[in-house]
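Researcher: We're teaching a course module on how sequence relates to structure. For the next exercise, students receive a sequence and then see the predicted structure as tokens, so they can try to spot secondary structure elements on their own. Here is the exercise chain.
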Amino acid sequence: RNYVKLGTISSATNGGRNFWLGNNPNATWNTGNGLSATPDLRERLQATPSEAEKDFIQFKDGLKFIWANPARAAALYAAKWLNFWRLYPRPSTGYKVNKHLAMLLSILSCGLVLGFALIGLRGAFQHNPDATGLLVGMILCLSSFYALFFTSVRFRMPIDPLLMIFATHAVASLWQRRRESLPSMHIDMKDRAKSSLLKRYP
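Model: And here is the predicted structure for the students to work with:
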């Protein structure tokens, strides 16, 4: 529509800002989009009317921080990657219900899915290594890409369906094992009952 009406293909111009939000002296493992620009950066941004130029300025500042602080940037990247996998959200608007209850329910639900997904990975690789490798690669690429910027639990939403696939594989495998063990259990119980009757009525 933009191309037909305006003759151009519009795109978002906040990639540089998001990159700066996750890579600057004040950035932390859970920095969100509420971090304010430094006075120097704010002055340079106000000096140009171009949104694309503003975005590029912030991207360059993020790169400068990484080059000047490689060890800190690497540690920050690892912390942001782990934050991507946090089991409960930290909404900037606060919790609408009891905070501790919401966190507990989130940990239980997300924890179960993630736990079963890890269990199901082995069986999934044995069953279909190519497809499983593709899905795992997608998960790792997306989580690693987001960690270049800043991370949030909601950014994991595209990955959650893939985790559910592996979790379902684990549940199905456990259920199948349970079903396969039932006949032997039934036979064993019949043998015990027969043995008991023979002892009582030889």
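Model: If you want an answer key for the exercise: The chain has eight helices and no strands. The two ends are 89 Å apart (CA to CA).
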